[in-house]
Structures are given as C-alpha cells and as structure tokens.
Design goal:
Elements: H1 3-17, E1 20-26, E2 34-40, E3 42-43, E4 49-54, H2 58-65, E5 68-74, E6 86-95, H3 100-109, E7 122-137, E8 140-145, H4 146-151, H5 157-170, H6 172-183, E9 192-194, E10 201-207, H7 210-213, E11 217-223, H8 234-262
Antiparallel strand pairs: 1-2, 1-5, 3-4, 4-7, 5-6, 6-7, 7-8, 9-10, 10-11
Helix pairs in contact: 5-6, 6-8
Length: 263
C-alpha cells in the first residue's frame, strides 16, 4: 500500500469511527459569515455523507439557500486537539436525495432519529464529496481529490447483509468477544447486533454496562485492522479481529488466575 493510500484509508476509518462532526454552512441571516452546527452523519459506501436535519434549523435554511458546505470530523479521544487526526470534507448538499436503503442505515446507527420523523419537518440531505483535507498528525497534511477518495472505496453493499446474517447465526460468540475487547468489559453473547458492514469496519449495538443502565443501548464502530480490498476479504478481516479478541481474553483470564492464586 502506497503512503498516499495509507493516509486515505486512515481518513476513511476516522470518518467511519466518528458519528458527529461540525457542519459549516453559509449564513443566510449574516451574509458572508460561516455558521457552524454539531451534526450527526453517516458516510456512504461511496464516501459521501448523509445528514438528517429539520427545516426550521438554521443550517437547513442555509443549505437550501447555498448548498456548498463542509463537515469537520476529529478524533476526540486525544487530549491535544491540535495533535489529533481530523478530516474536513467539502461537498455539495442536496435535500431529499437519500434513498430508502440509506435512510434505513442511518436510522440503524441513530435510532433516536426515528422520533424526529413526525417532528419539525425533518428531511435527509446527501452531501456529495468534492474534496477532502486530512491531517493525521505533525507533518501529515494532505488534500485528497474526489478521484483519490472514490478510487479507494471498496463497495460491500452486495455482500454486507449476508455477512451480517452469517455473523448473527453462526458466529454470535465471536461477535460478542470482539465487542467485549473493544469496550474492555464483558458482553453477553446474543446481546450484540451487527448493524452495518463497510470496507473499514462495522457498526454494532449492545446493551450498556448492566452496572450503570441495563436497559440502555450502546452503538459503536469497530475498525478492521486492514481495510477490505480485493486481496484482503471480509472473512479474513473478521478472523483477525476474532483472534485478537481471543488472545486478549486469554491474557485477561491468565492475569485473573494469577491474582487469585496469590490471595
């Protein structure tokens, strides 16, 4: 993999793993000024963005008047925001351009949005990517063209649903183990749902920590160790995650046994 390809995949993985960004639109009420809004988003197989916004929201009015927008996403886990990886997507927003399948995928990742369907005239917008700016860290600063971005996207739409059903029916134990490794806490088999499957990983939902709120649901994204390509298939990517999770579980059990024997 070339250095450029590596950074494109890093940028895509960051976009997949983060669910909220800063949407910048052209202000209608304050001409010439940008207007920033915190906005949940879903990235499509092609690398475009889906957002769901109310007609009464200022950013919706702005997009309807001027459809050139940007969305900035960054890794909020880093203590130094200036050193964290971030992506700025520049694109063109279009209302009512999201098909039913994409709407369903969005609702799966953001189930709270289902309650907005009948409220305040919410509608979907498709933000078609035009160009991207990626900063991976000190000295890692790149512009990616649309051709760069899309040529690195591997579409799993034809096989994703079958893979999800296979994981639920035959490998629910491995799925629970992978999510437990991600969350660093026990996860009960059968209480994990695989919501999506993309080139760079998959969304999942599971019950939250029973010690805090047993009825709440946690939704997250797990990145594959290596993106899906013609030479690195989905099955191989899931096997790698499973093996890593098993190794971690074995190490944790070993530490527990050692501590028990010394008490």
């Amino acid at each position: 993999m070339s250095n450029k390809s590596k950074h494109i995949h890093q940028a895509a993985a960051l976009m997949r793993s983060q669910h909220t960004g800063l949407l910048s639109t052209h202000s209608v009420s304050m001409q010439g000024y940008p207007f920033g809004s915190v906005m949940p988003f879903l990235m499509t197989e092609e690398g475009n963005l889906v957002v769901y916004a109310s007609d009464i929201a200022q950013h919706s009015r702005n997009m309807q008047e001027h459809n050139k927008v940007s969305l900035c996403v960054y890794d909020g886990k880093q203590s130094d925001s200036q050193a964290s990886a971030r992506v700025t997507v520049l694109g063109t927003a279009q209302a009512d351009a999201v098909d039913a399948q994409l709407q369903e995928q969005y609702m799966a990742v953001f189930p709270q949005a289902k309650s907005y369907v009948q409220a305040h005239d919410f509608r979907f917008y498709l933000i078609s990517t035009v160009r991207l700016r990626y900063i991976g860290g000190f000295g890692e600063i790149f512009w990616f063209s649309l051709d760069d971005w899309q040529s690195h996207m591997f579409n799993l739409a034809a096989s994703a649903q079958g893979a999800i059903e296979h994981m639920h029916e035959d490998h629910s134990d491995a799925l629970a183990l992978i999510v437990a490794h991600q969350l660093q806490r026990p996860v009960i088999q059968g209480q994990v749902t695989m919501l999506s499957c993309y080139q760079h990983g998959f969304h999942y939902s599971c019950t939250t920590d029973p010690a805090t709120d047993k009825d709440a649901t946690h939704i997250g994204f797990i990145c594959f160790k290596q993106p899906i390509t013609k030479d690195h298939g989905l099955r191989q990517a899931m096997v790698v995650l499973t093996q890593e999770a098993k190794k971690n579980a074995e190490c944790s059990n070993g530490k527990t046994e050692t501590m028990s024997s010394t008490i």
